[in-house]
Design brief:
Layout lengths: L17 H32 L3 H27 L4 H5 L3 H10 L5 H23 L4 H10 L5 H15 L3 H26 L1 H14 L2 H22 L4
Helix pairs in contact: 1-2, 1-5, 1-9, 2-6, 4-8, 5-7, 5-8, 5-10, 8-9, 9-10
Length: 235
């Protein structure tokens, strides 16, 4: 994220018409709501594959947290007169396609995917949310908060590498593929939804034009590099 607090950045709504800004809020919350549902499903699946009862219990708790995040978004959408299902529908195909292309082959790949692949998408959505008004911005920050999966993934992956250093190369290659697919998915979501494109471009223009867009990409790259280092993998 930028070092400049969101409430001190030039407001995107100075550049974007109110109706387009409202549509962008619905789009962003729609993609996040569906993303939380998918995260709930995948964590539940991971819990079934977990090697120990402790892991099963931890992942089960994380799955519950993701579903609660979905419910929080659904309630907010309902409060502004938007059907959550309608808001999610445009994002079912692109998100399902991403997850089909990045289906992990084992437990460790699943952990890396949740930490690295989903992490860069989370960073992108936080960047977009920085151009929103205070209430939806706070909601996005709330539902994208870590449910404990980051520490869990880092601990398990690093332990696996320590036990068998040969897995590090395979997982690093997997992580690089995930990042490429995640960036394509995030760009596709933004480009396919004109209101989101207007919000990003308008917000970036208010914050400094093309230079701000470049800084956003730099922040995403830096965050990815830090995640890889946390896992003990080369970016």
């Amino acid at each position: 994220m930028s070092d400049t607090p969101a409430d001190e950045r030039p407001a995107a709504h100075a550049q974007v018409a109110p109706e387009r800004r409202n549509a962008a809020v619905v789009d962003l919350l729609g993609v996040l709501a569906y993303g939380q549902l998918i995260a709930f499903e995948h964590l539940a699946d991971d819990a079934r594959l977990a090697p120990t009862l402790l892991d099963k219990s931890a992942l089960g708790g994380m799955a519950v947290a993701e579903y609660q995040h979905y419910e929080r978004i659904a309630r907010y959408l309902g409060s502004i007169g938007v059907d959550p299902v309608t808001a999610m529908e445009p994002f079912v195909e692109p998100l399902d396609a991403f997850h089909e292309l990045t289906a992990p082959s084992d437990w460790l790949e699943g952990l890396v995917k949740a930490f690295v692949g989903d992490g860069i998408a989370t960073d992108f959505y936080r960047e977009v949310a920085s151009y929103l008004d205070a209430e939806p911005h706070a909601l996005v920050d709330e539902v994208l908060s870590d449910s404990g999966h980051a520490t869990f993934a880092v601990d398990r992956v690093r332990a696996a590498i320590e036990a068998d250093p040969s897995v590090a190369g395979r997982l690093a290659l997997w992580a690089r593929r995930l990042v490429g697919e995640a960036l394509v998915q995030a760009q596709r979501v933004a480009v396919d939804r004109e209101a989101l494109t207007d919000l990003i471009v308008g917000g970036a223009t208010a914050s400094g034009g093309l230079a701000e867009l470049g800084q956003m990409l730099a922040r995403l790259t830096e965050a990815h590099t830090r995640r890889m280092a946390q896992l003990g993998l080369r970016a």
